[in-house]
Design a protein that fits this description.
241 residues, five-stranded mixed sheet, 7 helices
Length: 241
């Protein structure tokens, strides 16, 4: 099982893993870099980023803004199950208070529709490090090869951080995640539109990408802002269903 990530946040502890292939989208879209990382709940002499540790703990392939060798990579790992919802199967966890209850309901509906129609499990964690459940989300969400974990954290340069399972990695070109982060996760967009808009539009763009048919043009571009309602199917966004 493997997952990849689209930016890094502090989380678990990293250990080498054969399937982990980080990509630094800040330097060049979808260009593999030298280091490979994985995570576990075990302690380590280093303190890798959240997405790196989440990836390893989930058996993920890391793909995105890796912070190996940067100050972010030295941040302490976090494992706080007390910040998880008291009920099970909550697909959107907002410990930072970025989105309203109605926005959370919209994302939850879109996620449920996506999972029903495609089998892919999108999960969203909005946080401000170090206030995060961190590695505790791995078991709570039962992360597997068909899971996308979207961590929204503006603590660093890009709010969009994505870890994807191996099945998603095979279905979606890695360049899509780089473009997604560049479109809705950059500092300028965040300043002009705020965290909620960045999260809503990123979720909608992921939903659209995963619904596109296989082919050379699948996920070739990032959906722009349409203000659409949660999709009820492959053409739901077009017809506002």
């Amino acid at each position: 099982m493997a997952m990849r990530s689209c930016t890094v946040r502090p989380g678990l502890t990293a250990q080498p893993m054969a399937h982990a292939r980080p990509v630094d989208v800040r330097r060049q879209a979808a260009r593999p870099i030298v280091t490979a990382r994985a995570f576990s709940s075990e302690s380590s002499t280093s303190s890798p980023s959240f997405t790196q540790r989440l990836a390893s703990g989930c058996g993920c392939v890391a793909l995105a803004l890796t912070l190996a060798g940067s100050a972010d990579a030295r941040l302490e790992g976090v494992n706080r199950p007390d910040l998880l919802p008291k009920t099970e199967n909550v697909s959107v966890i907002d410990v930072a208070g970025f989105i309203t209850p109605s926005e959370e309901a919209r994302i939850t509906a879109e996620i449920a529709s996506l999972e029903r129609d495609t089998g892919f499990k999108l999960r969203v964690l909005a946080q401000n490090y170090p206030e995060t459940p961190g590695s505790a989300v791995k078991n709570y969400w039962k992360v597997d090869d068909s899971t996308i974990v979207f961590v929204a954290d503006p603590t660093f340069k890009n709010i969009i951080n994505v870890n994807v399972g191996q099945n998603v990695d095979l279905d979606v070109p890695r360049s899509f995640w780089s473009r997604l982060a560049g479109t809705y996760g950059n500092a300028f967009y965040l300043k002009e539109n705020g965290e909620a808009e960045a999260i809503l539009n990123a979720v909608s763009a992921i939903d659209t990408c995963l619904r596109e048919p296989q082919g050379r043009t699948k996920c070739a571009s990032v959906q722009k802002t349409f203000g659409e309602k949660p999709s009820s199917g492959a053409f739901g966004k077009v017809f506002g269903q």
